[in-house]
Amino acid sequence: xxxxxxxxxxxxxxxxxxxxxxxxxxxxxxxxxxxxxxxxxxxxxxxxxxxxxxxxxxxxxxxxxxxxxxxxxxxxxxxxxxxxxxxxxxxxxxxxxxxxxxxxxxxxxxxxxxxxxxxxxxxxxxxxxxxxxxxxxxxxxxxxxxxxxxxxxxxxxxxxxxxxxxxxxxxxxxxxxxxxxxxxxxxxxxxxxxxxxxxxxxxxxxxxxxxxxxxxxxxxxxxx
Length: 224
Fold this sequence. Notes:
Blueprint: E1 12-15, H1 22-28, E2 34-37, E3 40-43, E4 46-47, E5 54-57, H2 59-62, H3 66-70, E6 71-74, E7 83-84, E8 87-89, E9 98-100, E10 103-105, E11 109-112, E12 115-117, E13 121-124, E14 129-131, E15 134-136, E16 139-142, E17 145-147, E18 151-154, E19 160-163, E20 166-168, E21 171-174, E22 179-180, E23 184-187, E24 197-200, E25 203-205, E26 208-210, E27 215-216, E28 220-223
Parallel strand pairs: 1-2, 2-5, 3-6, 4-8, 5-9, 6-10, 8-13, 9-14, 10-15, 12-17, 13-18, 14-19, 15-20, 16-21, 17-22, 18-23, 19-24, 20-25, 21-26, 22-27, 23-28
Antiparallel strand pairs: 7-11, 11-12
């Protein structure tokens, strides 16, 4: 298989060295670039905007797991409450779009398809790599349907890779209708039986799903 070739040399963009926010760095990045984020708490709700880039803490460079705990993306202050997931992939991203080495917290999910989805990470018609993150304390609490307190992936392309993450203490709660996946919700798995969806070596614990009708998958819900 031929490696992907990009039209410019790979560039590493530093946050906050080059740009003060992760989103500004993403907006300036080109396919193949790395957005490398220093330790700290970043109150942002970021969107990859279809770019084939890696956004990572310094864990990506040196393997020091302390960077994962100390590099925090906190989505609790969204500029648009309709899109309140911490991280969004929704423009056809594939496995060349990578999220690595963060604590993802404070998300409330995005409104889509009549649900509030993906408190921590919202994936729609995309298939990124989600590697070595702590996804915790994201809370969907809505009168709509609720999907994926930690991660939701809907109508995605193959393959989708969720590997080596800790997914804990997330909530998917609906006060009126159904709820799916306190930790992870996966919908429209047209590729599931081909082995092209990889959920591997994750710790998934203490996630809650709650509704007055159907509660589906405290840890993981798979349907569609």
